[in-house]
Design goal:
The complex is a heterotrimer of chains A (about 750), B (about 290) and C (about 80). With about 290 residues, chain B is an alpha+beta fold. Chain B is about 35% helix and about 25% strand. Chain C has a single domain, classed as Beta-grasp domain (Ubiquitin-like (UB roll)). Chain C is α+β, with helices and mostly antiparallel strands. The chains are: A alpha+beta (about 750), B alpha+beta (about 290), C alpha+beta (about 80). The structure holds flavin-adenine dinucleotide. Flavin-adenine dinucleotide (FAD) binds near residues 26 and 189 of chain B.
Chain lengths: ~750, ~290, ~80
């Protein structure tokens, strides 16, 4: 590890240190309570019946035998989840996905659910439910679904029609970005490379399955304990779907065993609430791994065409990408995100991207860490690598010649402010990995990546305890160590030690609304609100000190965790510590606290570059990752170890996708590998230690310069690995994952042609 | 469901014989418990054999080695005499799952689970291992390759169980090896595999060979033609190529999510070559 | 009056103009005028539009003022993982 700080604008005392994480002891001793680790008196077991068909009309459901079974307390179907969406199409889609209303639209789509006194009874009851299906033709491939002859996945919401044949298409949305004139740009270029790419669907692969305990009372109040990235959003959506008052549903987020975007959407939680409402008892609903794969939201499968023209000097003169993303049976924003990010790393005069969302009979696509960007980068960075080869130019140099900088116009519109891609590339250039010699069958790949940040609604509270320690309550779920980072921030502002601040995640009754932990926003937004809350508390502390001293508050300043009197008259008073002021609180006005309710604006963006060294076994097509380097701009690393953790984790997920992870569908439209045996995420022994460099180009929009870092690390790996394999084998890889059979087939093909 | 934990083989055989329903032996449980949890089997009786002292032992006999059916794969890996004599069998057993799985699982369970991809089975077939079976009608001994009949089915009669697996002693200038291909480095299931056992002359000419392939047919494949391609050679390039060709030709794999027919046929030949080279190197070193 | 840049697909609702003139001093006013002038943009506003002012992307704070001569871009409002 090393930190490459460009400008040291601020001196920090706590920020930038690496203390032990506050949730660590609970996690390593097994005491941390995850979604399934909570129980209520009288609790029932909920299980869901799922469609075995990729596409089928539900003609009827007979639940009478299941209801008659001893120990069964509730059986529900879509009829028990009436439409409260009030014309909101998006909400109705969520409801339809939670429980199929008229049609099962993918293998694994929920059609009914039961709550019973134990799992055996619930399982037996599922077997007694009779569903009469009329099986319909299905389509699971993105390019197949786009053909005008393809069957229509979702009849109501189809928003595009083939203009020539006037038939509905499975196109949900088309988005376009860019500027300049790409045809003129291509005409000017000395070299044009054009290629098509395909990326199979991957799942976030979080280790903790979805789990919740739902309890709805007869008086219309309820509680939900759940593993989620955003309990406030879950509350709103669940209350709306069930027709409950938002404030009467209290949602508590459990510890979370990974989400990566997959726990930003509700899946079985509304079903658990509906079961509890009907049974009149709490219901615990835990998904199996198979259910997680079949019935929650993986990322999009995609198909992409890229065309890039360059001058002989390696300057991009024109760039075009057509990106097609599967969105499952419902609406999506995935084409839009791919089209916005595809060329975001480069300053290009003429650029155009078209992103399309395509409906298919697969589970509803959910966000997965920088959604859509990894496969867009796979396509674009692969073409750039090929261009570098054809120009006989160092691929890093090619990136330098085109990299966006402060003042560059982004490919999706706005002009960039202070950004750090060039600084990242400089850090790559001076890294020793570039000088490690490569042997036969080995190759080195480089790729860049970009992702936005989002800010959003944020709310925190700082409470000072009687002994001068502090409790910070935040509302963004901690998915990667942010409680420790927030304690560092509060300690920094208050001027006290890290171990005197304890950060907890408040439930929905404790704080005002907080947007979900997504879009790399958790640390960015909550640290901003934390700084505000502490500043407010310091104002109160100064007032209390002034009261204790009986002097005007304007003569009191806050320094190094103490109140100090200033001015000629009082400047010689001994300082008052936080603990001394806290002790006097009952007699100076009561509890001392600071609050902040904000919309966090001022987001930065984060660029990264990865270097991957591989060795390919030419006889089996197996790829071994020899070395892997992540360099990324963090703006300011509050807790560098967790920033590195994000870099490493993102890289590992990307490597898994690059090499092995994929949804495999049979001709029957059913998912064939709904488990970790055949859906291969990497294991430790598959990987070298992932090396990291944190570059710090502070974000001027944040008081400490923080940029969100969580998502960018998964953007470059598909391309970095593909470029490394392509250079090791001499064959350009255009289809991820680059599993051994696929690589060997590509090598054999290249021999033949 | 009834669970019992007998202390002797006789008691276990009695329990199995007296059961009219669906009885299952429980060794490490790394297959059985997974299948029960998935709802694929619902045993009426479970006979746990881990408390039978006799079945927990690895013994040197006058003919070779006796490996009790409840010996874990981790214990095989800790046995120096087995590692020296049958490195291929031990390395196959030590590829199963992970450290945690190896602390539980057994080679007898691996065999009786009758998966075409079971890792220890090709190594045992190449080694010419024998299976010691006990049942209501006494005991019998059979070759390993006679136990699996098809995926999930064995030739064990109702009430029968495997008591031990026996290996010969190891002469000089002989050794074995096992290599599998998986897309990951562990926690995976073989896409194809090869176990090879070689005996050489003092000058390095191969005297006898046994070749067995895994995951490329409904059961383990013993490929005698491939073995013949090695005998009389010093594993020159031509012999290796011949070995790969015969193995690829003998393979009868299926297309599935884990690999295509073409891929498996091609890779099993590559693995056979690499396994033969490793076994040969070991045999040369074993003087 | 400010110049407002719109992204490709939104320009289908602004008579295919990539730059439009809007009379507004805040984001709230800008979005209101946009729909007034180009009713086809209403569903886009409903789905979410972020406004970039001199490169700073404002997602939620509609009270932000639009300085004279600022570079203003409309982009889709983002959600993510
Ligand atoms: C995470 C994981 C990873 C795995 N990885 C691998 C791998 O890499 N390679 C591989 O080959 N396998 C693998 N397996 C499968 C399994 O671990 C092996 O097949 C193992 O050898 C089974 O041994 P066991 O003792 O646990 O068998 P058990 O589960 O106890 O038994 C398996 C079957 O054999 C029967 N049986 C057991 N002992 C006897 C006996 N003495 N007589 C008659 N019948 C008997 C049982 O009734 C049952 O039907 C894996 C399993 C898991 C859970």
């Amino acid at each position: 590890m090393n930190i490459n700080a460009k400008t040291q604008i601020q001196e920090f005392r706590s920020v930038g240190t690496r203390p032990v994480r506050q949730d660590g002891v609970d996690k390593v001793t097994g005491r941390a309570r995850y979604g399934a680790d909570y129980n209520m008196p009288g609790q029932l077991v909920g299980l869901v019946l799922r469609s075995p068909h990729a596409h089928a009309r539900i003609k009827s459901i007979d639940t009478s035998a299941a209801e008659a079974l001893k120990g069964v307390k509730a059986v529900i179907t879509a009829a028990d989840l009436p439409d409260h969406a009030d014309g909101d199409e998006g909400l109705l889609e969520i409801l339809d996905n939670c429980m199929a209303r008229t049609k099962a639209r993918y293998d694994g789509h929920a059609v009914a659910a039961v709550a019973a006194i134990d799992e055996a009874t619930a399982r037996k009851a599922l077997g007694l439910i009779r569903v009469d299906y009329e099986v319909l033709p299905h389509v699971t491939d993105v390019d197949e679904a786009l053909k005008s002859t393809a069957n229509v996945v979702h009849e109501h919401a189809t928003s595009r029609v083939d203009p020539e044949q006037n038939v509905p298409l499975n196109v949900h949305a088309t988005e376009e970005f860019g500027h300049g004139d790409i045809e003129a740009g291509f005409a000017k270029s000395d070299l044009i490379v054009e290629r098509s790419f395909k990326a199979e669907q991957s799942h976030q692969g979080y280790i903790e399955p979805h789990a919740c305990v739902a309890s709805v009372n007869a008086d219309g109040t309820g509680d939900l304990w759940v593993t989620t990235q955003g309990h406030f959003s879950y509350r709103i959506v669940c209350a709306q779907l069930l027709g409950m008052d938002v404030s009467k549903l209290r949602v508590t987020s459990s510890e979370i065993g990974g989400g990566f975007g997959g726990k930003t959407h509700v899946w079985a939680e509304p079903v658990a609430l509906a079961l509890s409402r009907k049974a009149g008892r709490p219901v615990k609903l835990t998904m199996s791994r198979e259910e997680v794969f079949r019935s929650t939201g993986p990322t999009s499968p995609a198909s992409i065409d890229v065309k890039i023209g360059v001058s002989n000097e390696g300057v991009i003169t024109s760039a075009y990408a057509h990106l097609r993303y599967g969105c499952g049976p419902y609406s999506g924003v995935w084409g839009m995100l791919g089209a916005m990010t595809a060329f975001a790393c480069y300053d290009i005069e003429n650029v155009k991207t078209i992103g399309i969302d395509v409906r298919i009979n697969r589970p509803k696509t959910a966000a997965y860490r920088a959604p859509s960007a990894p496969v867009a980068a796979f396509a674009v960075e692969s073409v750039l690598d090929e261009i570098a080869q054809k120009l006989d130019m160092d691929p890093l140099e090619l990136r330098f010649r085109n990299a966006v900088k402060n003042g560059s116009r982004s490919s999706y519109g706005p002009t960039f402010g202070t950004i750090g891609l060039v600084e990242v590339l400089e850090a790559v250039k001076s890294h020793p990995q570039l000088n490690v010699p490569l042997a036969a069958n080995q190759g080195r790949g480089i790729a860049c990546g970009y992702w936005f940040n989002i800010g959003g609604q944020t709310c925190t509270t700082l409470n000072i305890g009687v002994d001068g320690t502090a409790t910070l309550t935040i509302g963004t779920v901690d998915v990667g160590g942010s409680r420790s980072s927030m304690s560092l921030v509060a300690a920094e502002e208050l001027g006290i030690d890290y171990d005197k601040v304890k950060t907890v995640i408040g439930d929905t009754a404790t704080l005002g609304h907080n947007d979900t932990t997504e879009g790399s926003r958790g640390t960015f937004s909550s640290s901003m609100a934390t700084i505000n809350a502490v500043k407010q508390a310091i104002g109160v502390l100064r007032e209390r000190a002034a009261k204790m001293w009986e002097i005007p508050v304007d003569d009191v300043v806050w320094e190094k965790g103490c109140a100090r009197a200033v001015g000629e008259e009082h400047g010689n008073l001994p300082t008052l510590s936080l603990a001394e002021i806290a002790k006097e609180a009952p007699n100076t006005g009561g509890p001392i606290a600071g609050h902040s309710e904000i919309v966090a604006e001022g987001v930065g963006v984060s660029f990264g570059a990865h270097i991957c060294d591989v060795e390919v076994d030419p006889e089996t097509g197996a790829t071994k990752i020899l070395r892997y380097l992540v360099v990324q701009d963090a703006g300011r690393a509050i807790h560098p170890a967790y920033v590195e953790g994000q870099y490493q984790g993102g890289a590992v997920q990307g490597i898994g996708w690059a090499l092995n992870e994929e949804y495999v569908y049979g001709a029957d439209g059913r998912l064939q590998n709904a488990g970790f045996l055949d859906y291969r995420i990497p294991v430790c022994s598959d990987l070298p230690m992932i090396d990291t460099v944190i570059v710090e180009v502070p974000n001027p929009g944040h008081p400490y310069g923080v940029r969100g870092v969580g998502e960018t690390p998964i953007v470059p790996p598909l391309a970095a690995v593909a470029n490394a394999i392509s250079r090791a084998t001499g064959v350009r890889m255009t289809h991820v994952p680059m599993s051994p059979p696929r690589v060997l087939a590509a090598l054999e093909n290249a021999k033949v042609t | 469901m009834h669970y019992s934990r007998p202390n002797s083989v006789a008691e276990a055989v009695n329990l199995l014989g007296g059961n009219t329903g669906n009885a299952f032996i429980l060794a490490g449980g790394s297959d059985l418990l997974v299948r029960m949890k998935g709802g694929f089997v619902e045993p009426s009786l479970i006979v746990d054999i881990k408390a039978i002292a006799e079945l927990r032992q690895i013994r040197a006999t006058d003919k070779g080695f006796w490996i009790g059916a409840a010996v874990t794969c981790a214990e095989l890996g800790e046995s120096e005499m087995l590692r020296a004599a049958w490195p291929g069998v031990v390395e196959a057993a030590n590829l199963i799952g992970s450290k945690q799985v190896q602390g539980r699982c057994t080679i007898a369970g691996n065999l009786c689970n009758a998966s075409p991809a079971a890792d220890s089975v090709p190594a045992l077939v190449a080694a010419g291992a024998r299976v010691h079976i006990v049942g209501p009608n006494g005991s019998r001994v059979t070759a390993v390759e006679d136990v699996p009949l098809s995926p999930g089915k064995t030739s064990l009669a109702p009430g029968e169980m495997v008591a031990a697996i026996e290996l010969d002693e190891r002469p000089a200038h002989a050794s074995d090896a096992y290599i599998r291909f998986i897309p990951r480095t562990e926690m995976d299931i073989a896409v194809a595999s090869a176990g090879i056992n070689l005996t050489l002359d003092a000058d390095g000419t191969i005297k006898t060979a046994r070749v067995a392939l895994g995951a490329v047919a409904p059961t383990v494949l013993r490929v005698d033609e491939a073995a013949e391609a090695l005998v009389g050679t010093k594993l020159e390039t031509a012999a290796l190529e011949r070995l790969a060709e015969t193995c690829s030709a003998a393979a009868r794999p299926i297309d599935d999510k884990r690999g295509t027919i073409a891929y498996r046929k091609s890779v099993v030949g590559v693995l056979a070559k690499r396994t033969a080279e490793l076994a040969y190197k070991r045999a040369r070193a074993n003087s | 009056m400010v110049d407002v840049n719109v992204w490709g697909s939104l320009s289908t609702c602004t008579d295919n103009q990539k730059v439009i003139q809007i009379e507004a001093t805040t984001i709230r006013g800008l979005l209101r005028e946009l729909v007034e002038k180009y009713p086809g943009a209403a569903p886009w506003v409903k789905r979410g539009i972020s406004v970039s002012i001199d490169g700073e992307i404002i997602r939620d704070d509609w009270s932000k003022t639009l300085p004279d001569d600022a570079e203003i871009y409309l982009i889709p409002r983002m959600t993510s993982g």
